[in-house]
Design a protein that fits this description.
Blueprint: E1 10-15, H1 17-27, H2 29-47, H3 51-59, H4 62-68, H5 70-83, H6 87-94, H7 96-99, E2 109-115, E3 118-128, E4 135-142, E5 148-153, E6 160-163, E7 168-173, H8 185-193, H9 198-208, E8 214-219, E9 225-230, E10 236-238, E11 244-247, H10 268-285, H11 291-298, E12 322-331, E13 336-341, E14 351-354
Parallel strand pairs: 1-4
Antiparallel strand pairs: 2-3, 2-11, 3-12, 4-5, 5-6, 6-7, 7-8, 8-9, 9-10, 12-13, 13-14
Helix pairs in contact: 1-5, 3-6, 4-5, 5-6, 8-9
Pfam family, one: AAT
InterPro entries: C45_proenzyme-like, Peptidase_C45, Peptidase_C45_hydrolase
Organism: Billgrantia sulfidoxydans
Amino acid sequence: MSRQTRPLAITELTGSHHEIGAEHGRIHRHLIERSLQVYAQLFHDFVGLRWAEARDRACHFEAQIAQGFPEILEEMNGIAWGADVDFIDILTLNCRSEIALTQADGGCSAFSLLRHGQQWLAQNWDWRHDQLDNVVALHIQGDGRPALVSIGEAGMVGKVGLNARGIGVCLNAIRSQTCGAGLPIHIALRKILESEDMPSALAVATHQRVCSPAHFLLADGDGQAVGLEVQPGEPGRILPRGGIVTHTNHLYADNTPCPVRDFPRVDSWPRLCRLDALLHDELAADADLDEASLFDILSDHQGAPLSICRHFNPDQPAEERMETLFSVVMNLSERRLTVRHGKPCESADSLSIALG
């Protein structure tokens, strides 16, 4: 099942956190309204939770955000004001993983690759097709902070992206019942994207911590990369092997200081093995590397329908039908992000954003 996607355009946001949020809310008001409707349905499908109950759960995270990243609450207030919705609705949207969606994982596949002095970072983001039209590309130039690009969902403050210091981050969902003290996943991702350097980006996961398990693939333009299996305790770390880090939707770091239990679906391991094989073949070929060749890897269909590039699968229960909604390839050394909206195999049309 294929759907025509709307053209993805860059949304320019500048100023204070509140000003950035207000413009985000104003420009994407209708997409935000749809996102709220989508997650109201998802919460019901996954855990039988009504939106009013989800709002109550979200309020428990406000104090932790106020302690670890108070400025982002100003931005969420701005989004709510611009979109003419309640602040708690925007808070709920940004805490959606902690509220209920750690009970379910998508099929996201991510990798970092260091080749000829160029640091690459890439992933497919797989989720329910309901959110396909609510994907946004935000170019944020905040007062006194590094410019950044975030590809994510309307009404949310961050997800996958890079900043002008060459720091980039990808995300893999982890299904787990663990939730504790720390920043919600998407708040932590945005704080990483506002970091001035790699140590401060790492500190978000290692010192402030993250409420619930996920995998953050973190890299910079100088060739540093690490997989962080974040959680309320000390994260597990995955270091590059042959310049490569790969991850799907299960925990596998060795000697994790604070192990937690995850409940991955059966396709996570085969996708990880396939990703490793494709990247090692790419290195062995020693051909020129560019965005197109990495999008080819993200377009792989071996093991379909549970492949790296995921399409509609009618054999899955309705609440579990995940599809690739966008693909991102980042050249961190050159501060360039390229995104394909929808499945990477269906179109070579892409949006490319460079940060000076």
